[in-house]
Structures are given as C-alpha cells and as structure tokens.
Amino acid sequence: MKKSGPAYRCGECGAVVAKWFGRCPECQAWGTIEEVAAAKPALAKVVAGAPAAPARPIAEVDVESARAQRTGVPELDRVLGGGLVPGAVVLLAGEPGVGKSTLLLEVAHQWVAREDSPGRALYITGEESAGQVRLRAERTGNVHQEMFLAAESDLATVIGHVDAVKPAMLVIDSVQTMSSPAVDSSAGGVTQVRAVTAALVALAKERSLPVILVGHVTKEGSVAGPRVLEHLVDVVLQFEGDKYSSLRLVRGVKNRFGAADEVGCFEMVEDGIVGVPDPSGIFMSNRVEGVAGTAVTVIMEGKRALLGEVQALVAATDAPMPRRAVNGLESSRVAKVLAVLERRASLPLGKSDVFTATVGGMRIIEPAGDLALAMAVASAKLDIPLPNDMVIIGEVGLAGEVRRVGSVGRRLAEAARLGFKRALIPPDSGRLPAEIKATVVPDLRMLVDTLSKK
Hints:
Strand content: 15-25%
Largest sheet: 9 strands, mixed
C-alpha cells in the first residue's frame, strides 16, 4: 500500500491542499498554509453499531429540554432567538477592547441573579488573572455568590472545573488562549483552536450545557484562527463598535435556533454596559435642523427598523484628484451613487471633494439607504436643506431609477412613531401607514430637478 504524504491546510479558510503554497489558492491569504498530519485512508466497509437510543417518531420527541432559557439581558436574547438553548455553543467575536468580557460578565450575573435561575455560571478567563476580572466585576456591579471564576488555559483543567462546579452556563474567554495537552501545537494555532472547540462542543452536547466562546477578530474582520471554527458552533455573534462611540451592536451571523439577521444594541457607560431598547433615539440625537447635506433614512436590522442620519459635504477643489471620504457607509456603494448623480441627474461632482458619513456610530450597508445618500449629496451640492420631518427610503439603480425595497410599511411606522410626517419612497411599496404622507419617487433625476428649483 502506498504511503500517504503530508497534507497542508490553510489557517484562514481551512482549505486542504496537496503541497505547500505561499498563498492560499482558495482565500488568497498569504503565509497561512501549514503542514498537518496526513489523513488516514477511508475504510472500505463500515460495520453497523448499536444506537444509543432507538429512533422515534418526530412527534414523540421531547422538546422541553431544548427550550431556550433567557439570559436576563433582553437585547442579547433578541439576537439569540429567545435565549440560550441547552447544549448550544455560541461564538461571540469582536475586536480586542470592544467590550466582550464586560458584556459576558453582565450576562453571567443576570443568569444567576434572576429568581428562576437555571443554576451556576462558570467564567473561565485565559487572558487575565482572576483578580483582574474580579476588579472589573466589582466596578460594573456583577458580583454574585453563584458566579464562579477561574483563570485557566489548559482544557483538561477547565473540564475539571466543570465537573467540580457543575454550572448551568460556561463562558470561555477566549478560545484562542485554550490549549489541549493531546495536541502537539502552540495555543492559538489552527490545530489547537480546532481541537479545543471540538472538545467543548462535545462537552456541551453531552451535558446539555450552554457554552459561550469568545473569539478575537483580526484587522481584516474575520474570526482569528480558522474560519471553519464558525461551522463547528451553533451560533455566531459579531460584537461591533467604534472606539470613539459608546454604542455597541451585537449582530447575528449564524443561528441554528432562530433568525440569523437580528441585532441587539448596547451602550457602554462608566459602570458597565446596558441594553438600548430604542436605539433610534441615539442615532438621531443632537440632530441639527435646517442644514444642507443631511437626510434621514430607515434601515432594517433583522425585524427591527432603525432610523439613521446620512450627512454629506461637497466642497469645490482645484486638486486633479478630488477626495472621496466615507465613514459608516460602503465606499463602493457611495462611488456608485455619486456616478449615478453625475451621469443620470446631471449633478456636477467631478471637481468637488465629497465627504459622506453616518451619525452616532451607525453603519449603513443596506441598499435602502441609497436614495437618502443621493439626496444628502444633492442637498449639499445645491446648498438647499431638506425638510426636517422627511425620511427617504429607496435603492438607486445604475439607470437612475428608484427601486423597491422590503418592509416599507414597517419602516414608515417607525418613522411616524418618532414624529416624521413625510416620506420619499419607491414605487410599489405596498400598504403604508396613514400617519405619514408618502410621495412615490420613480426616478432620481426628477427628484434632483425638483430640489434644484426650490
């Protein structure tokens, strides 16, 4: 039998290749190919084994043991789909310093502090000492007798703590610091992260223990370690936030137990982190009225409608290459809208610097914000303010047409709740609330011409 040669795996995307490359042929990442043990040849025949439990009709399967248990943090429960499911493994990913540990201390405290608490919470820290975590818990008011804390980085010792404490929830901060003695690799490496995560997933399923793993995010925005880590867990949450803003967003990326596009809003305060049930107020706070270059739109984050303000500044320049600065928006989408404005609406922007941004730390990547962005730029160029009580919703096509977007009625209902009286919307938007006067806009050029005649 021919002996198998070495195999190589990419540390970013998990792709397996036959030989070493300097650049991964799948994800195009440099220096991520590592040698791994050769895979064993598949068995020619698999012998049937005795099942641990007989198969039953699906209607007779008990579902009570799989019901989600709320964490006590409503904004997180919204993203999780109601709470933590027993045996579920949740990966909370975010940049260092964004507040992941602060949030999970709050979750662990609320888990054990409520009257119907399922049991103890065990917090394992591999990056800080137990004293450092205790100081943060005291500062944020998250100290409770049923919260257990251990500073460990060895997986076998962590399982020993689980056997001793018998928690109802386990938090690992972070998975990159954990290592298994059975794996010959350094902590944080591809092999270690995969092995540790697989062992914790098996532990969670065996004991019906919900586990929350903290994962760091690289500067490229991906979870540090192999991307196959996201496929091993049940739920992947992205913790986002600008270091210059107190607002934090927990965004669902993957969820086997609920919607994968929900978002929860939090605010960092001096004594910890608090949920924000009405984030539109933060995004619209301190809005300056009667200034050209501002427009309000409504975006959908899961089932939640959020109002956001788009600002634009257009200034003439003699530079051969005018500047295009973007903050909080997709640069490619901004470039498309500027090109459509110049080509289809005859708005000269080729000799002007254009600065576009959102307010309050909001990030708008939904196509429904195209029309608001276009009107903000047109308002700034023509120096004509838009009405203060108007919201603008719609996608802009390359031909200058305004295209239909989803959930217009829900968006306008949220705008009406906050006092807006008028709206610009695309054609065929369906049933609309009576509290707001909507104007259908089929074409961007018509709208810019109307604005320029004021």
